[in-house]
Amino acid sequence: MTLPMLMFSYPYSLHRHRLIDIVLLCLVIWLSPPALLHAAEPVEIVVSGIEGDALKNVQSAVVLPPGLVEEGAVDQFWLDRFAQQAEDKTRKALEPFGYYNSQVAVTVEPNGERYRLLVRVTPGEPVRLTEVVVTATGPGSGEKNVQHLLSQFPLKTGDVLLHSRYESAKTNIKSRAVELGYLAAEFS
Q1: What is the strand order of the sheet 103-111 is part of?
Q2: Hey, which bits of 35-137 come out as E strands?
Q3: N or C: which end of the chain has fewer CB within 10 A?
Q4: Helix (H) or strand (E) holding 18
């Protein structure tokens, strides 16, 4: 049994016009967001005094909460409250990079109906490791492969305490220990 097929055909010019319309619409959407987003944001957050991954981490931590801006209007009470919280959020965002004694000043500058939240950071000196001791206890602690693994620990005395390197090293040691047959291996 053969099922009937319905086919519709459009004139070539209709396809071409529709394609042009779609391309133009895509261009408008692609080019518009920067201008629309800039104009629609009544609160601008500016972080100064740091750069690189630390800056990215602070920018990710200091994001306006939902409800602070509604229909383009800023709730002044919640903005002031957020500014107070931004200091602590900034300090915590700097800790993974070894900055435990950073100085943070947050100010809100009104500019008509818009606001600028300035986060000024003086990171200070990062915490450096004064001693690094990595040992194994229990079964396998004397095994040559385990000792070699521990000797490859990437953090050394004098290094900045970078949480990402520390966590990565812990994960690597634990997974290698499991590969060597120590299924109950723990890092403490």
Answers
A1: 43-48, 114-122, 103-111
A2: 43-48, 69-70, 73-74, 103-111, 114-122
A3: N
A4: helix 12-31
Burial class of residue 50 in the structure, from the number of CB atoms within 10 Å of its CB (0-12 exposed, 13-18 middle, 19+ buried): buried
Residue 31 to residues 21, 34, 103, Cα–Cα distance (Å): 15, 7, 39
Confidence of residue 22 (pLDDT cuts 50, 70, 90): low
**Of 161, 94, 96, 158, which Cα lies nearest the Cα of 123?**
94
For 69-111, the pLDDT digits (tens) are 888 888 888 999 999 999 999 999 999 999 999 999 999 999 8
Q: Would you say 69 and 52 are in contact if contact means Cβ atoms under 8 Å apart?
A: no
User: What is the number of other CB atoms lying within 10 angstroms of the CB of residue 182?
Assistant: 18
Instruction: For the chain, give the longest Cα–Cα distance.
Output: 83
Pairing of strands 69-70, 114-122: unpaired
Distance CA 131, CA 67 (A): 47
- DSSP structure class, residue 112: T
Which phi-psi region, left, alpha or beta, contains residue 85 (left: φ > 0; alpha: ψ -120 to 50)? alpha
Report, in angstroms and rounded to the nearest whole number, the Rg of the chain calculated over CA atoms. 28
User: CA-CA distance, 167 to 127, in Å (whole number)?
Assistant: 16
Residue pair 97/162 in contact by the 8 Å Cβ criterion = yes
